[in-house]
Write a sequence for this structure.
């Protein structure tokens, strides 16, 4: 018997990510991380479940709002590292990993270096 959880869901996940709203979210995330759309799709397919991918557009909008609120409150590190996008919106990074990245950014580690490290870790 071929049960749903035994199937390779990558083609279905890719089809979801090709939706208009999801594709816009993929492009926005890719731009924030400085990578191309295909690499971002691969990261999302490998790290997210179907429900997260289907709701990626609204989740990203909520993360954008959280990042803007944090920046307005003086926390620019969160927005620069896209922490709300990678933790709350997609679940790619754990809260513990995000806290560690924030700590390192506060101790003068370059943001670009940390973004490259994030991409490497989630790829």
């Amino acid at each position: 018997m071929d049960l749903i959880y035994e199937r390779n869901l990558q083609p279905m996940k890719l089809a979801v990510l090709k939706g208009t709203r999801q594709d816009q979210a993929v492009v926005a995330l890719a731009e924030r991380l400085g990578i191309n759309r295909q690499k971002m799709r691969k990261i999302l397919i490998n790290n997210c479940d179907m429900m997260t991918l289907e709701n990626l557009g609204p989740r990203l909008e909520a993360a954008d709002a959280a990042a803007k609120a944090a920046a307005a409150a003086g926390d620019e590190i969160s927005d620069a590292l896209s922490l709300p996008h990678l933790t709350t919106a997609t679940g790619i990074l754990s809260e513990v990993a995000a806290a560690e990245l924030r700590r390192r950014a506060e101790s003068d580690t370059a943001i670009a270096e940390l973004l490259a490290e994030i991409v490497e870790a989630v790829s």
Q: What stands out?
A: DSSP finds nine helices and no strands in the chain. The first helix runs from residue 10 to 17. The two ends are 32 Å apart (CA to CA).
